[in-house]
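Please fill in the sequence for the structure shown.

STRUCTURE ENCODING:
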């Protein structure tokens, strides 16, 4: 079994689309930063060596595919912030790390569904409960897959395959050593000169615990730079400059946008993931990202918090960090959310946080994360510089119609059919979303077991329901339409250059 491939310099550098027909022929369209070998292709980095069987790697930070027997295995990221998308149709399979690319190549029309936002946000429920089916077409079905690898057969069947399980951890040193070794291997692979592009680490840092702890680990492994947002939601100071400089990092400060003041194009890259676009708050990072490995603290609020009940399925408190995928492919950077490394061992990590050896770093308050506190303090960062109060940087664009400025709003509306606008307006005018939210909040204030039961009647799971707002679906559909236009231009330039 073999496949042919075309490298298109008109595509986003890290984007790929694999076409596998029912006669067994495979063909790959890809950007200039996708690495292609005789048996597999891949974009990103992982904790291993080139040529290694990617199905046997626990820590993968990117995506690709590998041959297996008479079929193919889709390699997914070892976290739930990004997905791989599959189109099963009568002629075979289409697989891509970009939903817009997949839909455009197969000319699949996106139908209106006011619940797209909730469907995508179900990723926060974890790897065993999220919604996989995105839409049905007359010719097939479009799926997304998170975390698990996927074995495909030419007859249209597929099977989810679990990644190798990380080792168990008994002590703080065991866990930190594993994080460091994983990052060391990933950094080395990303920097190999044989690659089409090489990547170097860029930490993120704030006044909180999670990204700052990741920066402390990265500094030990040779990272020299960090980026930080000056303010959090509401204008509160959240710059991690003092923390980064205490670690010996050169820190770049950027401004956090309060709204989308320019064209819709700049936010479409974030909204096209279907995950709400809340990571648009990091648009200021863009000039610093090409050729970098962005190290973030997403999921630290669950994996490192003392009061959280452990789970092995990567259940999350929200979907922050999940809107970067299309932005990443286009800006040519890699992403490693450090707290999600070995996160399926949450029970072990939680036990370490609560263990006697961590007592000097336990505050026993409502914002208590002993593991990152110890990492930072042992790295020379004063206790008063971080972890004093929880803040948030994300922007929930669907909640306020004014967060899209007049230009962006006009362009957004021009990208979707008029009947979709009317449908969204009708949903919002009925006010069902707000009625349920108001009831939820009222009983939330009352408290008690009876109120908790009634709250679940209004909103079974807030993490998902929040994104069922009709404006979230409208933004997603408009963003897909915009990105499809761009991929269409790329596909028209397929003759630019090719290899096989």
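FILLED IN BY: designer on duty
SEQUENCE:
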């Amino acid at each position: 079994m073999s496949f042919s491939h075309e490298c298109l310099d008109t595509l986003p550098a890290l984007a790929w689309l694999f076409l596998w027909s029912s006669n067994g022929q495979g063909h790959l369209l890809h950007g200039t930063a996708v690495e292609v070998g005789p048996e597999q292709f891949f974009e990103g980095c992982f904790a291993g060596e080139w040529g290694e069987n990617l199905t046997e790697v626990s820590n993968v930070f990117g995506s690709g595919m590998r041959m297996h027997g008479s079929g193919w295995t889709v390699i997914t990221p070892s976290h739930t912030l990004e997905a791989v998308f599959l189109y099963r149709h009568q002629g075979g399979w289409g697989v891509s790390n970009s939903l817009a690319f997949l839909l455009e190549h197969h000319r699949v029309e996106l139908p209106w569904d006011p619940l797209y936002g909730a469907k995508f946000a179900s990723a926060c429920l974890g790897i065993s409960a999220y919604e996989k089916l995105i839409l049905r077409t007359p010719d097939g079905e479009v799926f997304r897959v998170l975390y698990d690898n996927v074995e495909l057969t030419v007859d249209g069947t597929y099977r989810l395959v679990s990644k190798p399980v990380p080792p168990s951890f008994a002590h703080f040193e065991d866990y930190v050593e594993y994080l460091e070794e994983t990052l060391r291997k990933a950094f080395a692979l990303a920097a190999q000169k044989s690659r089409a592009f090489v990547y170097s680490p860029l930490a993120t840092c704030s006044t909180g615990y999670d990204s700052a702890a990741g920066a402390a680990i990265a500094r030990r492994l040779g990272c020299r730079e960090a980026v930080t947002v000056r303010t959090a939601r509401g204008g509160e100071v959240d710059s991690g400059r003092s923390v980064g400089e205490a670690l010996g990092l050169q820190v770049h400060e950027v401004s956090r946008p309060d709204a989308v003041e320019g064209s819709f194009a700049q936010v479409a890259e974030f909204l096209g993931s279907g995950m709400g676009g809340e990571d648009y708050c990091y648009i200021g990072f863009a000039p610093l990202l090409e050729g970098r490995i962005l190290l973030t603290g997403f999921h630290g609020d669950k994996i490192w918090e003392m009061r959280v009940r452990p789970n092995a399925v990567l259940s999350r408190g929200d979907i922050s960090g999940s809107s970067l995928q299309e932005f990443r492919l286009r800006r040519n950077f890699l992403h490693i959310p450090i707290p999600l490394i070995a996160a399926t061992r949450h029970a072990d990590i939680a036990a370490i946080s609560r263990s006697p050896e961590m007592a000097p770093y336990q505050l026993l308050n409502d914002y208590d994360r002993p593991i990152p506190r110890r990492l930072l303090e042992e790295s020379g960062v004063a206790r008063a510089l971080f972890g004093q109060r929880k803040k948030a940087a994300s922007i929930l664009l669907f909640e306020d119609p004014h967060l899209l400025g007049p230009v962006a709003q006009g362009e957004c509306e021009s990208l979707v059919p008029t009947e979709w606008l009317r449908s969204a307006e009708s949903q919002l005018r009925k006010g069902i979303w707000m009625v349920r939210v108001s009831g939820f909040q009222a009983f939330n204030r009352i408290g008690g077991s009876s109120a908790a039961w009634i709250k679940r009647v209004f909103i079974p799971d807030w993490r998902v329901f929040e994104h069922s707002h009709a404006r979230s679906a409208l933004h997603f559909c408009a963003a897909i339409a915009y990105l499809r236009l761009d991929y269409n231009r790329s596909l028209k330039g397929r003759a630019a250059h090719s290899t096989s």
